[in-house]
Amino acid sequence: MERILLFNILCLALLIVLPTTWAEDNLISPSKLEMFVDELPDMPKIQSYEVANGFFKSKPLVIGMFKKHWKFHRDLPATPVYAYGTSKNNATVPGPTIEALHGIDTFVKWQNHLPPNHILPWDPTIPTAQPAAENGIPTVVHLHGGIGEPESDGHAHSWFTRRFKEVGPTWTKREYHYRNFQQPGNLWYHDHTMGLTRVNLLAGLIGAYIIRDLDVEAPLRLPNGEEFDRTLMVFDRSFRTDGSIYMNSTGNNPSIHPQWQPEYFGDAIIVNGKAWPRLTVRRRKYRFRIINASNARFFRFFFTNGLKFIHVSADSAYLEKPVVTKETLLAPSEIADVVVDFSKSNSHSAILANDAAYPYPSGDPVNEANGKVMKFIIKEEVEHDTWRVPKTLVKYPDADLSSASKTRYISLHEYTSDIDEPTHLYINGKKFAEPATETPKVGTSEIWNVINLTEDNHPLHIHLGLFKVIDQTKLVNEEEFKACMSKLNNAIKCKIDEYARGKKIEVPAHEKGWKNVYKMTPGVVTKILVRFAYIHSNESYPFDATTQPGYVYHCHILDHEDNVMMRPLKLIS
Ligand SMILES: *C1O[C@H](CO)[C@@H](O)[C@H](O)[C@H]1NC(C)=O
Ligand SMILES: *[C@@H]1O[C@H](CO)[C@@H](O)[C@H](O)[C@H]1NC(C)=O
Ligand SMILES: *[C@@H]1O[C@H](CO)[C@@H](O)[C@H](O)[C@H]1NC(C)=O
Ligand SMILES: *[C@@H]1O[C@H](CO)[C@@H](O)[C@H](O)[C@H]1NC(C)=O
Ligand SMILES: *[C@@H]1O[C@H](CO)[C@@H](O)[C@H](O)[C@H]1NC(C)=O
Ligand SMILES: [Cu+2]
């Protein structure tokens, strides 16, 4: 008893004597957390439809955002998080998976219950939503991959605080309306608040959203049902010994931005809310919809026992044919939708591993901790498998370049301080607040040439539009072109055609489908065809895409998006 008291007093004395950074840096070493001890959770499923008199109809949902505690690992104290759920009790990280049906609208009342004082350090010196502190934390939900009206798109300025006490300048409605008229596929919802996206996602505000179309999908006979069709949401986090999420609160340019850092990387790899979980599987085919919900970490997944990935879709649309790979590179927010056939395994377990450097591609190599993702324990007996992977999946129209009504140049810029540390990043050298320059016409397609003038790979995400990657061409005399761009900031005046003549880089087969995010390689011009219309039908949008506040497009490294690698996208009629 006395010894414990003495020990406590000593600890207290230490706390007082040591500089405050001691508490700040009191990180848990990932080697202290044993891998593969927690079972892989399945997030709760919520259907946004119901059957009435033999017909499907919408079932309106109410989903809240709550502050609560979440156990990320058996041996880690519960972590304060922000979680989506139908109640505080059953809110989860990631949030519930919303199951929608093609053609049946989803209605969601997103409700903010978050108290004041953010659980993570944010930075008021970057353009940020700043309601009165006592009103709580601003949030707004974006459905990533959704094709819907601007009012329900979760524009960065459409945020709201708890009980809608304060709302952002473009906020218009409490109940969001998702049409689900698009092709079946994988979407996800996440926070999109101006300047706070990176911290709100880090805190836990993410969840999956699946659109199913039974007419299209049932004949494919891909692995189906709760057991064989699973969503894996992967992200990285670091923790302190008390369980709280650690985010470095010292900016890389503290005199300019006291807290902002250009990229967040965590040491522990989390799948469906557990660090390095395990899943026991049968010797047959499974479908995994793998969503990379990291802020900045790229993953290059592979199986340690040589099992392969059979890609069936990319982002939110099916591929025309399955593509088999041994590894798969996912940028933040990209989705790999793969079938894995465990009957092909020659061992009783397989580790899903990752070997992507961070930042990708030129950063540090992975270590023991972030090089492993999860473990599959494979049952002994071989089973009769009723699922298959057909030779052809779903055919959508090809990218028809001749149909493009406009060609644009989109350049990605990074700015650095005197100490050569990044201070902010812009698209086209323009602030987010400057008026929209990308104003496509509803129903048209456009060619966008995306020019990466930075050292990093930036996953570009476009709201509303789907795109196909046409080609990737290396710049020649890149420094000369960059020098011109930093002066004139105009790709045509800088004679882009004379520089975009280098080697062509092949687009991986499993990324040749219709996408909503693509990795923009540095020093490369990536040509994409963006379609502001459906891909599965010639019908026009059943909503007005030209209304306020419009849409955005941005880099999906959240730390870049917040500061402010994002531009308005304004559709016109
Ligand atoms: C982006 O471009 C920069 C400079 O042009 C280059 O150094 C960098 O490697 C490129 N990034 C990738 C991922 O290729
Ligand atoms: C969450 O809890 C509420 C009541 O607290 C219940 O009605 C609802 O069905 C639960 N949802 C899920 C997905 O478990
Ligand atoms: C936090 O960031 C600062 C500035 O970039 C750096 O000097 C410091 O080492 C970082 N701390 C940790 C624990 O990584
Ligand atoms: C996940 O996405 C983040 C950023 O959006 C990216 O930095 C990271 O590399 C991606 N990880 C995987 C496994 O794809
Ligand atoms: C859309 O129109 C084009 C050209 O008229 C036609 O070739 C194509 O089959 C149509 N697509 C659908 C899904 O109806
Ligand atoms: Cu970026």
From TrEMBL:
InterPro entries with a match to the protein in the record = Cu-oxidase-like_N (IPR011707), Cu-oxidase_2nd (IPR001117), Cu-oxidase_C (IPR011706), Cupredoxin (IPR008972), LPR1/LPR2 (IPR052152)
Cofactor entry: Cu cation
For whether the record's keyword set contains Transport, the answer is: no
CDD domains for this protein: CuRO_1_BOD_CotA_like (cd13844), CuRO_2_CotA_like (cd13868), CuRO_3_CotA_like (cd13891)
Q: Boundaries of each Plastocyanin-like domain copy?
A: 138-213, 266-354, 413-569
**Pfam families reported in the protein's UniProt record:** Cu-oxidase, Cu-oxidase_2, Cu-oxidase_3
> Which keywords fit this entry according to its UniProt record?
Copper, Endoplasmic reticulum, Glycoprotein, Membrane, Metal-binding, Oxidoreductase, Signal
Q: Where does it mainly reside?
A: endoplasmic reticulum
Q: What GO biological process terms are annotated to this protein in UniProt?
A: cellular response to phosphate starvation; meristem maintenance
- Coiled coil ranges (UniProt) are none
Stated membrane topology is: Peripheral membrane protein
Q: Where does the signal sequence lie? A: 1-23
**GO MF annotation terms:** copper ion binding; oxidoreductase activity
The compartments listed are: Endoplasmic reticulum membrane
An example Gene Ontology cellular component term from the record? endoplasmic reticulum membrane
Key word Transport present: no
> What is the similarity comment for this entry?
Belongs to the multicopper oxidase family.
Question: Which PANTHER family does the entry link to?
Answer: MULTICOPPER OXIDASE LPR1-LIKE
User: Which protein, by its recorded name, is this?
Assistant: Uncharacterized protein
Q: Which organism is it from?
A: Dovyalis caffra
